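[Q] Does anyone have a clean C-alpha coordinate version of this?
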Amino acid sequence: MISRSTIEQLCDYDTALIANTIGFLDATPADQWYMSGQIQSVTPSLGPTVGVAVTCEIDTSSPGGGPEMDGFWRQLEQMHAMKAPAVWVVKAIGSRPEHECIIGDGMAKLLRTSGCVGLVTDGGVRDVPGLLATPLATYCRGTVIHHCALRIRATDKPVEIGGITVNPGDLIHANAEGVIKIPQGCLDKLPEKASAMRQLEHEVHRIWRRTDVSIPDKRKIAGEIFAKFGFTHANELTNAKK
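[A] Here you go.
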Protein backbone atom coordinates (compact mmCIF):
# COMPACT_ATOMS: atom_id res chain seq x y z
CA MET A 1 0.00 0.00 0.00
CA ILE A 2 1.42 3.38 -1.04
CA SER A 3 0.86 5.89 1.75
CA ARG A 4 -0.48 9.38 1.22
CA SER A 5 2.46 10.64 3.30
CA THR A 6 4.96 9.18 0.82
CA ILE A 7 3.09 10.74 -2.10
CA GLU A 8 2.95 14.14 -0.39
CA GLN A 9 6.69 14.07 0.29
CA LEU A 10 7.51 13.13 -3.30
CA CYS A 11 5.52 16.12 -4.55
CA ASP A 12 8.37 18.30 -3.24
CA TYR A 13 10.82 17.05 -5.88
CA ASP A 14 11.04 17.46 -9.63
CA THR A 15 10.80 14.31 -11.69
CA ALA A 16 14.36 14.40 -13.02
CA LEU A 17 15.75 14.46 -9.48
CA ILE A 18 13.53 11.53 -8.50
CA ALA A 19 14.74 9.63 -11.57
CA ASN A 20 18.37 10.34 -10.67
CA THR A 21 17.77 9.06 -7.15
CA ILE A 22 16.02 5.84 -8.20
CA GLY A 23 19.15 4.55 -9.93
CA PHE A 24 20.99 4.53 -6.60
CA LEU A 25 18.21 2.67 -4.78
CA ASP A 26 16.77 0.14 -7.21
CA ALA A 27 18.36 -2.11 -9.82
CA THR A 28 15.34 -2.05 -12.14
CA PRO A 29 16.73 -1.02 -15.57
CA ALA A 30 15.85 2.58 -16.33
CA ASP A 31 14.37 1.67 -19.71
CA GLN A 32 11.54 -0.04 -17.82
CA TRP A 33 10.35 3.02 -15.91
CA TYR A 34 10.81 6.27 -17.83
CA MET A 35 8.54 7.28 -20.70
CA SER A 36 9.70 8.60 -24.04
CA GLY A 37 9.63 12.27 -24.95
CA GLN A 38 6.55 11.55 -27.03
CA ILE A 39 4.54 12.02 -23.82
CA GLN A 40 4.64 15.74 -23.07
CA SER A 41 2.98 18.02 -20.54
CA VAL A 42 0.39 20.43 -21.94
CA THR A 43 -0.08 21.90 -18.44
CA PRO A 44 3.55 22.66 -17.50
CA SER A 45 2.61 25.10 -14.74
CA LEU A 46 0.99 22.20 -12.85
CA GLY A 47 3.08 19.60 -11.07
CA PRO A 48 4.97 17.73 -9.97
CA THR A 49 2.16 15.21 -10.29
CA VAL A 50 2.29 12.15 -8.03
CA GLY A 51 -0.41 9.51 -7.80
CA VAL A 52 -1.41 5.87 -8.06
CA ALA A 53 -2.10 4.59 -11.57
CA VAL A 54 -5.65 3.68 -12.56
CA THR A 55 -5.44 2.24 -16.07
CA CYS A 56 -7.72 1.80 -19.03
CA GLU A 57 -7.85 1.41 -22.82
CA ILE A 58 -10.08 3.73 -24.84
CA ASP A 59 -11.05 4.24 -28.47
CA THR A 60 -11.97 7.82 -29.32
CA SER A 61 -11.12 7.86 -33.03
CA SER A 62 -12.78 4.93 -34.83
CA PRO A 63 -15.75 5.86 -37.05
CA GLY A 64 -19.23 4.54 -36.38
CA GLY A 65 -20.99 3.23 -33.31
CA GLY A 66 -21.96 4.94 -30.09
CA PRO A 67 -20.29 5.72 -26.78
CA GLU A 68 -19.42 3.01 -24.27
CA MET A 69 -18.60 4.82 -21.05
CA ASP A 70 -19.76 2.54 -18.22
CA GLY A 71 -16.11 1.70 -17.49
CA PHE A 72 -15.28 5.38 -17.05
CA TRP A 73 -17.98 5.85 -14.45
CA ARG A 74 -16.81 2.76 -12.60
CA GLN A 75 -13.28 4.10 -12.54
CA LEU A 76 -14.48 7.43 -11.17
CA GLU A 77 -16.09 5.52 -8.29
CA GLN A 78 -12.86 3.54 -7.84
CA MET A 79 -10.78 6.73 -7.63
CA HIS A 80 -13.23 8.30 -5.22
CA ALA A 81 -12.84 5.32 -2.88
CA MET A 82 -9.03 5.36 -2.96
CA LYS A 83 -7.05 6.62 0.03
CA ALA A 84 -4.40 8.18 -2.22
CA PRO A 85 -4.56 10.53 -5.22
CA ALA A 86 -4.98 8.79 -8.57
CA VAL A 87 -3.40 9.31 -11.98
CA TRP A 88 -5.56 8.11 -14.88
CA VAL A 89 -3.27 6.26 -17.30
CA VAL A 90 -5.01 5.79 -20.63
CA LYS A 91 -3.92 3.77 -23.66
CA ALA A 92 -5.45 5.05 -26.91
CA ILE A 93 -6.39 2.09 -29.14
CA GLY A 94 -8.57 3.61 -31.87
CA SER A 95 -8.09 2.97 -35.57
CA ARG A 96 -6.89 6.55 -36.27
CA PRO A 97 -4.13 7.24 -33.72
CA GLU A 98 -3.57 10.86 -34.77
CA HIS A 99 -7.25 11.60 -34.14
CA GLU A 100 -7.41 10.28 -30.58
CA CYS A 101 -8.77 12.90 -28.14
CA ILE A 102 -9.05 11.40 -24.66
CA ILE A 103 -10.52 14.21 -22.56
CA GLY A 104 -11.58 17.82 -22.46
CA ASP A 105 -12.32 20.08 -19.54
CA GLY A 106 -15.67 18.40 -18.76
CA MET A 107 -14.19 14.98 -18.10
CA ALA A 108 -11.32 16.70 -16.31
CA LYS A 109 -13.72 18.12 -13.74
CA LEU A 110 -15.24 14.69 -13.13
CA LEU A 111 -11.79 13.19 -12.70
CA ARG A 112 -10.52 15.92 -10.39
CA THR A 113 -13.54 15.82 -8.09
CA SER A 114 -13.17 12.03 -7.87
CA GLY A 115 -9.62 12.27 -6.50
CA CYS A 116 -7.62 12.19 -9.74
CA VAL A 117 -4.70 14.64 -9.95
CA GLY A 118 -3.44 13.88 -13.45
CA LEU A 119 -3.85 12.15 -16.81
CA VAL A 120 -1.13 10.27 -18.71
CA THR A 121 -2.04 9.10 -22.21
CA ASP A 122 -0.56 8.38 -25.62
CA GLY A 123 -3.58 10.06 -27.17
CA GLY A 124 -4.38 13.75 -27.49
CA VAL A 125 -6.52 16.13 -25.43
CA ARG A 126 -8.37 19.40 -25.88
CA ASP A 127 -9.57 22.40 -23.82
CA VAL A 128 -6.12 23.04 -22.32
CA PRO A 129 -7.15 26.31 -20.60
CA GLY A 130 -9.91 24.35 -18.90
CA LEU A 131 -7.49 21.60 -17.86
CA LEU A 132 -5.30 24.26 -16.27
CA ALA A 133 -8.23 25.89 -14.51
CA THR A 134 -9.68 22.62 -13.16
CA PRO A 135 -6.71 21.90 -12.39
CA LEU A 136 -5.81 18.51 -13.93
CA ALA A 137 -2.16 17.97 -14.85
CA THR A 138 -2.09 16.38 -18.31
CA TYR A 139 0.65 14.46 -20.12
CA CYS A 140 -0.09 13.38 -23.69
CA ARG A 141 0.96 13.47 -27.36
CA GLY A 142 -0.53 16.92 -27.96
CA THR A 143 -3.84 18.56 -28.70
CA VAL A 144 -6.64 17.27 -30.94
CA ILE A 145 -9.73 19.36 -31.58
CA HIS A 146 -12.45 16.67 -31.43
CA HIS A 147 -13.22 12.96 -31.15
CA CYS A 148 -15.57 10.24 -32.33
CA ALA A 149 -17.68 8.26 -29.87
CA LEU A 150 -15.72 7.49 -26.70
CA ARG A 151 -15.54 3.76 -26.01
CA ILE A 152 -13.85 2.28 -22.95
CA ARG A 153 -12.52 -1.11 -24.08
CA ALA A 154 -10.70 -2.39 -20.96
CA THR A 155 -9.98 -1.23 -17.42
CA ASP A 156 -7.49 -2.06 -14.68
CA LYS A 157 -5.06 -3.94 -16.92
CA PRO A 158 -1.40 -3.24 -17.77
CA VAL A 159 -1.02 -0.65 -20.54
CA GLU A 160 1.99 0.31 -22.63
CA ILE A 161 2.53 4.06 -22.94
CA GLY A 162 5.65 5.95 -23.90
CA GLY A 163 7.63 2.74 -24.30
CA ILE A 164 7.01 1.33 -20.81
CA THR A 165 4.35 -0.83 -19.20
CA VAL A 166 2.25 0.74 -16.45
CA ASN A 167 0.37 -1.59 -14.13
CA PRO A 168 -2.64 -0.65 -12.02
CA GLY A 169 -1.32 0.51 -8.66
CA ASP A 170 2.06 1.76 -9.95
CA LEU A 171 3.15 5.11 -8.55
CA ILE A 172 3.45 7.78 -11.25
CA HIS A 173 5.68 10.85 -10.93
CA ALA A 174 5.56 13.52 -13.64
CA ASN A 175 6.26 17.16 -14.31
CA ALA A 176 6.84 19.54 -17.23
CA GLU A 177 9.75 17.43 -18.50
CA GLY A 178 8.14 13.98 -18.60
CA VAL A 179 6.72 10.94 -16.83
CA ILE A 180 8.16 8.02 -14.85
CA LYS A 181 6.77 5.16 -12.80
CA ILE A 182 8.58 4.50 -9.53
CA PRO A 183 9.78 0.93 -8.90
CA GLN A 184 8.07 -0.49 -5.82
CA GLY A 185 11.34 -1.64 -4.26
CA CYS A 186 12.64 1.86 -3.53
CA LEU A 187 9.49 3.63 -2.34
CA ASP A 188 10.22 3.47 1.39
CA LYS A 189 13.64 5.08 1.06
CA LEU A 190 12.93 7.46 -1.80
CA PRO A 191 11.73 10.61 0.02
CA GLU A 192 14.74 10.67 2.37
CA LYS A 193 17.24 9.87 -0.38
CA ALA A 194 15.69 12.43 -2.73
CA SER A 195 16.39 15.08 -0.10
CA ALA A 196 20.01 13.91 0.06
CA MET A 197 20.23 13.92 -3.75
CA ARG A 198 19.06 17.54 -3.82
CA GLN A 199 21.86 18.51 -1.44
CA LEU A 200 24.37 16.41 -3.38
CA GLU A 201 23.46 18.04 -6.70
CA HIS A 202 23.82 21.48 -5.14
CA GLU A 203 27.35 20.69 -3.96
CA VAL A 204 28.42 18.97 -7.19
CA HIS A 205 27.01 21.67 -9.44
CA ARG A 206 28.73 24.35 -7.37
CA ILE A 207 32.07 22.68 -8.21
CA TRP A 208 31.24 21.93 -11.85
CA ARG A 209 30.33 25.54 -12.65
CA ARG A 210 33.74 26.82 -11.48
CA THR A 211 36.34 27.73 -14.10
CA ASP A 212 39.32 27.58 -11.72
CA VAL A 213 39.02 23.82 -11.07
CA SER A 214 40.55 21.33 -13.51
CA ILE A 215 38.51 18.58 -15.15
CA PRO A 216 40.38 15.81 -13.26
CA ASP A 217 39.77 17.65 -9.97
CA LYS A 218 36.09 18.11 -10.80
CA ARG A 219 35.78 14.37 -11.37
CA LYS A 220 37.63 13.57 -8.15
CA ILE A 221 35.68 16.03 -6.00
CA ALA A 222 32.37 14.82 -7.41
CA GLY A 223 33.28 11.25 -6.48
CA GLU A 224 34.07 12.36 -2.96
CA ILE A 225 30.72 14.14 -2.67
CA PHE A 226 28.82 11.10 -3.90
CA ALA A 227 30.66 8.97 -1.32
CA LYS A 228 29.90 11.51 1.41
CA PHE A 229 26.18 11.16 0.77
CA GLY A 230 26.41 7.37 0.51
CA PHE A 231 25.34 7.09 -3.12
CA THR A 232 26.50 3.98 -4.94
CA HIS A 233 24.62 2.92 -8.06
CA ALA A 234 22.16 0.11 -7.33
CA ASN A 235 23.49 -2.01 -10.20
CA GLU A 236 26.97 -1.75 -8.72
CA LEU A 237 25.64 -2.91 -5.37
CA THR A 238 23.87 -5.83 -7.03
CA ASN A 239 26.99 -6.87 -8.91
CA ALA A 240 29.11 -6.64 -5.76
CA LYS A 241 26.82 -9.11 -3.99
CA LYS A 242 27.19 -11.77 -6.69
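[Q] Thanks! Anything notable?
[A] The mean pLDDT is 95.
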